[in-house]
Amino acid sequence: PRLYFWALQADFGDDRRRAAGGAHLGLQWHPQYPGSTAVNWGGYRAGGGGLAGSGSSLPSTLRNPNTRDLHWTPGRRYRLRISRVTAAHHPTEPAPAGTVAWRGSVVDLDAGDQVVVRDLWVPADRITGVTMWSEVFARCDDPSAAVRWSDPEVMTDDQQLHTPAALAVNYQSYSDGGCANTDSSPTSGSGVVQRTSTERVTAQGARLELDPR
Question: How far apart are the first and last CA of the chain?
Fold first, then answer.
């Protein structure tokens, strides 16, 4: 009965890679939401403070604009997608002047259904960095839980798909509140598993090569 958050984080910037903030899209195991399942799409400006955004068609039990009710099933496959909104995407609300609408959506890969969480308004037209992380508020000795990340893709302005060749590993240090028994390890296919309450076999800063299959 504790909060788990598995998120895809996007860092935003301009063509000179000047930071314009970041946002995180992901599924949550949240005991205060129906069935303990929710989705979050929110972020922060580079100078501090939260990013504003559109409304959402999804309700929020806690009336949190970033965290919405969403039924999802452990063990099922979902794709997290962060995409720049164009006129063809029919933005739910126009982005204010000087900002770009970035949409967070979740695709149920088994059913083929897509849910749009909402649009965030960011003063940047590109993603400059990506992180996949687990934020876990359980005790270090609580039962083990895992998320499998797979098939990462990025699409450029010219509609070309690219797949990263490797991922860099980072753990929160024990002195900063992290657990020493978390691990990130490659799996078969183009995938990586992040696991709690387990032996750490991958060192801090390691490079995990992805299998292109």
Answer: 37
